[in-house]
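Exercise 3.2. Students should predict the tertiary structure of the chain below and write it as structure tokens, then compare their answer with the key that follows.

Predict this chain's 3D structure.
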Amino acid sequence: AAGGVDDAPRGTTPGEIHLLEAAGIAAEVRGVAQRIRSLLDGGVVPERIGVVARGLGAHGARIRDDFFRLGIPFSALAVASAPDGAGRRVDAIVAMLERGGDTAIDRWLTALDSRCVTDALLSDVRLALHALGVSRLSAAATFDVDQRLGGKSSYALPVRHGLSLVEDEDGELRPRADRRHVRARALRAIAERAASACARLTTWPDAATLAEHIAHAEALLAQSLGLREDDPDAAPLFAVLAQLGDELPMRVTMDAAGFRLLLRDALAPLRTRPLGGAGAGVQVLDATQARARTFEHLFVIGLCRDVFPRIVTEDPLLPDALRRRLVAGGTGVLPDLPLKLGGLDEERYLFAQLVSASPIVSLSWPIVDDDGTDRAPSTLVERLRLEGRAAKIETLPALWSRAAASGPRPAAEHLVLAGLHAGRAAVETVMPIAVAEVMACGAAAATRDVATDAPRAEAVARSRLTALGLLDPRGEARNRLGPGLGFVGERGDGDLREAGVAVTTLERMARCPWQAFLSRVLHVEPAPDALAELPAVDALRLGRALHATIEVIVEGDRSEDAHSLGDAIRRGSRRVPWPSDANLRDIIQCQSQNVLAGAGIFAPGLARALAERTEPLVRRVFEQVWQPAGGEAALFGAELEGVLRLGDAGGAGHEIRFRADLAEESAQGPRLVDLKAGRPITDAKTVHTRAKHLLRAVARGTHLQAAIYARAAGGSGAYLHADPARAGEQAMFAIDAGDGAAMEVLERSVRTLFEAWDRGSFVPRLVLPEGAKDHASPCKHCEVIEACTQGDTGARYRMERWEKARDDAAGPAAAALAAARAVFGMPAAGGTGGASDEEGSP
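Answer key:
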């Protein structure tokens, strides 16, 4: 049971008590901060105001931010905030000492001095190590840079410098998005540092004198991490080691684990920094620090059940009943042994002291946590209400409610309130003031002249308002799409969108135009994370291993780029024998290793697993291509590049680039084959139904390669699904060049996609067309979804209204909107019995 104010120490007089509840921790802190701001404006001395919590963990950061925003001076010297850069380095060093070679690579790079990397940014090195599959310190220590990079002088990162114009062979300027690179020597320097750190941690003596342990720690900091004693950021680390030598006998012997514990405790003060202040201002304290202190106004915050009073439980191994017998009235075996449940009396005493520490006390609590969990007020508060000391509960306004709009606030917060409650006109009025305020704060911090930023602040405010109008249009514009939903403008000279594109880009356009724009035009890629998930044998790696194996069987170990399809057909076919079983397994194993190495994975066991999964697919290709020819197939080649030119609606035409995985000779002419490791287009059994489903996939634009192959070669094009577990007996799906209906559907699909490509209509497929299946959604496995409006209910609502409406705007935007609607309205992606994605395609 909780005690009330009658538990207060003698001589104290309880004062006026106010009870405050809030809709959350943020609203609670802001409500308290506004009341303190009013007290300060009324002349109350800041040092006579106290803010106390049982523990300030969840409230600390908000107190710091809200007090700063409202101009409230405060001090919280004994309260720690989140670690800064120096604190994170200390955490990383402690982790190194405890985990050794198993330390995560990000932790080790945090501890490393950035000046150790002279030829690259440390962030680029971090990204390169993740892309190369280096996740632990021990892996970095054994990292063979030359082997991983194949002798190259640099490594291409999965990020770009940006867009630039580069002169091509014909002297024309063409746009290009070049990758950023990390030099090999920078990676070698990192590997050497990692090897030094691992060696230092591995050779650390199990038992040594304190002087030897300190010498090893100093060598780790200076030699392995590159930290210098004269560096202000690293000096406190060396000072801690020197202090250990001054306080303890240097000749005392201890084991390595004991020294690590000793050093961890000595470094603990460096891991965090005070929340703020230098002693003056409003006093921010926890309950134990506030003992025996008095205030004119006191705010006790966070008074939730199980927080204040804290949960007190008995020791399961030494319960209070046994402790009482051991104490035995002071004459027992352990007369000073405390009772665990005595902590409840301590909690009541602390609360009674706080309630009696000021003539005006405000007690507050949130009714929900940050994660939305309901919280009940403290039992100590309920006891006060039962005694009639404070029956009325005042509700603090929600953080962004109309009631909270009064009083002093930064202009940035007034901008939020204007957007929530006052409309677009108020936002346009407050936006320039808010931008100028934010820039002025930054200018003052950098000791620059604030007045010089006024024109720039106005320009930034105008650009923000323009972007707001595009992302959240008002009036009639709400029923139409705009630049915020994929309209990037028509293709012009020097545009990244070339006139000729790969057929796989067109197929991705059909699935989701915005995804195609991000990944194939801007070349946006997800940042790799070596610790995000374990490497696996997926359909993509299976497909790459399959393609590489068939290419070696057909072409041998050629070093040049892929041959031209036209040259190969002019040279004629050649008989290609199937290799022996032993030779085949060697080829598969070698190519499996190469595929994984290209992904930064060097695991022999995984390479064997990939080879074993790839072999049935390769033998399936043998059954479909080599076996009918008696073991020697008549082939033009493998991985052959070709170009097909098709006219668009205006007759100008576009070039479609493609690569045929396999080109074989047949009675009807060349047959170009696209090898697939993913699920087939359909699981239909009859030839007629399968052909109908394939034609429907061409109409959708999601499967154009076979039709493009047939049109370009004048023979036939086919998909060969090599995974028996997925495709069953139906392995081959073919289209003939003489199929007039198929060629007509191909031209219609290509014209529709190129029209959207040229008009800049890259509308994200936030909603599927009517009749589409859920598995057809391109969002399920999208790697660039973070750069999309997927999940924005407003954008989705606009898309749904636009998809149902038929009142596109007139003028220049009409053609772009019509092109987007044509792509969006292509035959529904579903009903084929298993629409396929790009699984297995490299």
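Discussion points: Confidence is low (pLDDT under 50) at residues 1-13, 443-452, 828-842. Residues 53 and 598 are 55 Å apart (CA to CA).
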